[in-house]
Amino acid sequence: MSLTKRFSVTIPQSIVKLIKKYPSFVQNKFREVLERFEHGERVDIIKKQGSDSEYRIRIGRYRIILIKTSATDFYVSDIDSREHIYGFLV
User: What is the per-residue pLDDT across 15-59, written as a single tens digit (0 to 9) for each?
Assistant: First the structure.
């Protein structure tokens, strides 16, 4: 496991406030997955259809939406449950 970061993820203050509304175990999972992604470890990430710069990371029923700003820089644009991110009810 490499300790150097391969990617840089920026989390705006509005997303930090949103994360704090979730239970602590969900917050820990978000943090863990983003840290693994930054270090280049394998996470469930795919490019969103119809976009050249939007990606999503899947964490169970939750999704993290990332926007690629450069080759190694990402910006978290949204975090929510699958139902709310994709705009449908299960």
Answer: 999 999 999 999 999 999 999 999 999 999 999 999 999 999 999
| Residues in a beta bridge with 65 | 56, 78
Residue 82 — φ and ψ, nearest 5°? -55, -40
Alpha carbons 84 and 62: distance in angstroms, whole number: 9
- For the entire predicted model, the pTM comes to 0.87
**Residue reference for tokens 């999704």:** 63
Backbone phi and psi for residue 55, each to the nearest 5 degrees, phi listed first: -130, 160
Handedness of CA 27, 28, 31, 32 (dihedral sign): negative
Q: Supply φ then ψ for residue 3, to 5 degrees.
A: -90, -10
